[in-house]
Amino acid sequence: MTSSSNLEKVFENLEKNPYYEKYAERIAALQRTSPQEFLERVNSSQNTNKIQSPSVPDTRQYSSVLNPKERLQEANFAPDAKLETIFKIDLVKDKNSTEIQSIWEEYHKQKDVIAATIPVELYSKINKMMRDYPTFLFPLPRAQGYEFIMCQNSGHSIHFTPLLAYQVHAENAPECLTIRHYTELEDKGIVLMRGEYDQNVLNGREAQYLANQFQLYYGTNDANTPEATLLHSFTHNPESFRHMDLVERLENITLPASEN
Questions:
Q1: Where are the bilayer-spanning segments (predicted)?
Q2: Stated pTM of the model
Q3: How far is CA 108 from the centre of its chain?
Q4: Which residue of 25, 39, 65, 203 has the fewest CB atoms within a 10 Å radius of its CB?
Q5: What is the Cα–Cα distance from 198 to 202, expressed in whole angstroms?
Q6: Tens digit of pLDDT for each residue in 52-108?
Q7: What is the DSSP code string of the chain?
Q8: Is residue 179 part of a domain?
Q9: Residues of the chain with pLDDT under 50
Q10: Is residue 258 part of a domain?
């Protein structure tokens, strides 16, 4: 558990963040003037064809918002892309889940992506939560504070974009991370996950960190957890949602570090 003095230091660091006031003012303004506006903008953007704390923080600050970044490959944006487009399913049909997991991990070891194998039971919970809570925010540690990253869920995919970039570019804001879940091997008791990220915005550790936070919030159906409370507040009571609660929660949990 983080001490109150440590938490005060976090807030102090955030206040020194050159982008902190921009975030705070914009979000606070949305909450004061139109609590539903942010969610409505996100929901409307979904109808268009677009879209772990780093152990050693790098020196990058925040994602550039002056110009839209180049999107990841257009093929990656197809809704619920098929596993067969990246992986030869026929070669693993006679394998068990443990063998497939090993093959999947080995297949991605030298690629600039994140990957995992998820038990069907857990993914069933995650996918239900994705439908119930289609958008959310995650704080990402940067060299001077935190950058907020927005996720939007669609089908079996999660699309991440820097919040500030979305506020500037709306539906034209490019994704910095796209996570897809492939359900073709559910009969083996597993769902394969793969995340592709924009290396101009995230490194592998940061991408994994966002994925870990996502699973922390969306991988439970216990309505009494702090994560469930924050999800519910963001979606159903945006007027009472405080983005700094996400930072406070992050400071009171430990996420597994990526080896990337």
A1: none
A2: 0.71
A3: 20
A4: 25
A5: 6
A6: 334 444 545 566 554 555 554 443 444 567 898 888 888 898 999 999 999 999 999
A7: ---HHHHHHHHHHHHHSTTHHHHHHHHHHHHHH-TTHHHHHHHHHTTSS-----SS--S------SSPPPPSPGGGGSTT--GGGTS-GGGGTTS-HHHHHHHHHHHHTTSSEEEEEEEHHHHHHHHHHHHH--EEEEEEEETTEEEEEEEEEETTEEEEEEHHHHHHHGGGPPPSEEEEEE-TTGGGTEEEEEEEE-TTT--HHHHHHHHHHHHHHHS---TTSHHHHHHHHHHH-GGG--HHHHHHHHTT--PPPP--
A8: yes
A9: 1-57, 59, 66, 72-78, 256-260
A10: no
Of residues 29, 16, 25, the one with CA closest to residue 61 = 16
* Structure-token pair, residue 194: 């793969």
10 Å CB burial of residue 242 (0-12, 13-18, 19+) is middle
Whether the CB-CB separation of 179 and 76 falls below 8 Å is answered with no
256 falls within a domain: no
- What total number of domains does the chain contain? 1
Give whole-number Cα distances, 132 to 47, 231, 251, in Å. Answer: 17, 9, 26
Residue type, 178: T
Residue 255 lies in a domain: no
Q: How many residues does the chain have?
A: 260
Strands 135-142 and 145-154, bridge-based pairing:
antiparallel
Instruction: Look up the domain containing 60 and give its range.
Output: 4-250
